[in-house]
């Protein structure tokens, strides 16, 4: 018996011995596995340096002067970093309650959660902590579900990295990092993009129920997609709210109230072709490409404008930019409808082209085809010219621009060649607005819709300036000859003989209506009504060279031939140059180069660039003020008079295409309209003391234009955009656009009060209000 008992006891101890041996071996194996994982035996582990500076792609962000994000530049990651301090407490609470209830009590691994997941096989929740999820997002990636062994090893690596993260960062930093890393779909990379894209607001502005939606998406943003599975996402949101109540972050009553709310998604997709100031942002992309070439990092490497998280502080005011874009849309939609009405095939068989022979139209279409993206893409693929041409005649499904759709798009079927002709029918536009005292550009609209018309007509485009060039001629005459706005010249046909000023032939410009009054006219009246004969006399007296010099000193970059015909605006100029030049008049004769960027910072806030103003004294204060006085006449009783008038002989037409008419602007305004040959280009340059704005409207081809001056003049095509824009600006007093009079010099050497100047045949300034005169 004793021997039997002894054998049993020995067997018992043997089992205990083996148990502890196996248990110890298991513990040692686990420790060994973790050690091997930390040493990189199962794959590369992040170094200390990488843990301190995890590699994340950050988008370049364009910020407006009033602190709003205009847009971003990025490749794959539309991510802008948000510090923990900028996260709302409701978002933090929702995250902890849903993803890691004991987040503040563990050091990267939740033992209780792990055991629970092990016992219940995950049916009562997973074991991954926020730190582990961050480790997977940053350093591991998608878990291998095909191999159990690999999945276990990846989990081990998660644990190791999570504990290292906990040693390197605070809980708050880990939480912020996780929310900044996560991909919420639709280019919503990180919490800031997600808040803006799904709710149209900054993260700090998120309501509790909105934070619950985003936290709910952390489980699987592709599956819990609010744009595709609304009911599923709503249920998930309510689950998150339930978790918040369970852990005491909200009361039961608050939970019930919030769960009863409908889910309101305010979807604002962010892409390079959509959003605010798209044309301006694309100009900024080119600006940055030049800047990074000239300003490398301290180590000599180039900044990456898509990945390095630069912050670009621009001069654009988001409120004024919205006003500008809205003004363009409102007027151009109406103007285009009238253009379509007048250019139907039954009225114009060659629509939209006017005054062209068939072979000329064929040449335009041929050129457009060969410069199209389709032609270039197929050429790169090695397709033959025969194959490429054939593809342009095959009908295909496509989405095209359409003013009549809420989204400005429609799905249709047409041949690529027909689509080229279709797009040719649309009138284009450009608009830029600048503060003349600083050169700060406040608004920039390069076309009617960047997604479908990507050519920037503000900076890239240049079109005949028409009568908007005349102020340079008048400025030269007042500056050199000291003429007063009250100085008179006869309105008779005037010729500059061959050989003078480089003329090969006699130049005898006609007035727009082909008539000459024979009376003396003041310069103020002549400019207000765009009388060509007076402008011809002035350029003859000062010489084309003087006019070119003044235009160049005022910032015009384009080469201008020194010939008399430039007086009527035959040279092609950009809206960008014209606004900068007109700013000289409003800024008391000092030219300030337009400024778009005030400073650039890296992702840590280190200033990399600050602008230095570029200025030049061009005109004396009294000459500049005399020019302002001249151009005030344009809007008082000249071709820009419809800014003030509420009635006129063409009121029916105004209501038809001039959105918002009557404008009834009563504050001091200086300006100039411009219309070129055959109404191909319509311009309006408008100024108040602290804002200069230029607008151009025309077809892509000069043969695309209105057949009648009534609709095609600058006062009908371009002026309404300026008027709508200014009315919107004035409706928001916080913007601060001036309604005051222009500041006069203390000592004015040039007389601007024509009642004090007696001259023979002085014109009565109260001329008839013929708003339909062409103003070449």
What can you see in these coordinates?
The protein has 776 residues and is of the alpha+beta class. It contains 27 helices and 18 strands. The strands form 6 sheets. It has a 5-stranded mixed beta sheet with strand order 2-1-3-13-14, with helices on one face. A 5-stranded antiparallel beta sheet has the order 7-6-18-17-16, with helices on both faces. Strands 4-5 form a two-stranded antiparallel ribbon. Helix 3 (89-99) packs across helix 10, helix 10 (230-246) packs antiparallel against helix 11 and helix 18 (470-481) crosses helix 23 (621-637). The longest helix is centred in the first third of the chain and has 37 residues, at 2-38.
Strand content: 5-15%
Question: Mean pLDDT across all residues, rounded?
Answer: 85
Number of helices: 27
Structural class, judged by helices and strands? alpha+beta
Question: Overall 3D geometry?
Answer: elongated
Distance between the first and last residues' Cα: 129 Å
In total, the number of strands is 18
- Taking Cα atoms only, what radius of gyration do you get, to the nearest Å? 35 Å
- In percent, how helical is the residue content? 40-55%
Quick recap:
It is built from 27 helices and 18 strands.
Secondary-structure blueprint of this entry?
Layout lengths: L1 H37 L9 H5 L7 E4 L5 E5 L15 H11 L11 H9 L10 H11 L7 H21 L2 H11 L9 H9 L8 H10 L12 H17 L5 H8 L18 H17 L16 E4 L3 H25 L15 H13 L2 H8 L4 H7 L4 E6 L7 E6 L1 H9 L2 E8 L6 E5 L17 E2 L5 H12 L6 E3 L29 E3 H6 L3 H11 L1 H10 L18 E2 L1 H12 L3 E3 L4 E5 L5 E4 L4 E3 L3 H17 L13 H7 L12 E6 L5 E8 L2 E9 L9 H4 L1 H4 L1 H13 L45
Parallel strand pairs: 1-3
Antiparallel strand pairs: 1-2, 3-13, 4-5, 6-7, 6-18, 8-11, 9-10, 12-15, 13-14, 16-17, 17-18
Helix pairs in contact: 1-6, 3-9, 3-10, 5-6, 5-7, 9-10, 10-11, 13-27, 18-20, 18-21, 18-23
